[in-house]
């Protein structure tokens, strides 16, 4: 259980980051429409969205790297890792 702890953390952070980024992007559209005359504020909002997107991309890269390393070692990702990340129905 302990050897897949980092992979489980990255998978969970990627899932939460993706959901959060969608919410932030949807909430940002009306804000941008309101502040569009204020160029400096527009740059700040764009910068925040850009940095958030880069962080999410880095999490995706770390997730792919962790899964690749795990599979290259000939290991399988245990079911408890997937159940921790996704809400799977109980079988």
From TrEMBL:
Protein keywords: Membrane, Transmembrane, Transmembrane helix
Keyword Transmembrane: yes
Taxonomic superkingdom: Bacteria
Record field: transmembrane: 20-38, 44-65
Protein name listed in UniProt: Uncharacterized protein
Taxonomic lineage: Bacteria, Bacillati, Actinomycetota, Actinomycetes, Pseudonocardiales
């Amino acid at each position: 259980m302990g050897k897949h702890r980092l992979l489980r953390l990255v998978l969970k952070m990627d899932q939460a980051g993706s959901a959060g980024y969608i919410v932030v992007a949807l909430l940002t559209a009306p804000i941008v429409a309101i502040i569009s005359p204020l160029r400096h504020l527009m740059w700040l909002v764009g910068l925040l969205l850009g940095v958030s997107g880069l962080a999410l991309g880095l999490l995706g890269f770390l997730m792919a790297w962790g899964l690749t390393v795990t599979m290259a070692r000939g290991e399988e990702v245990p079911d408890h890792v997937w159940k921790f990340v996704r809400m799977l129905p109980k079988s």
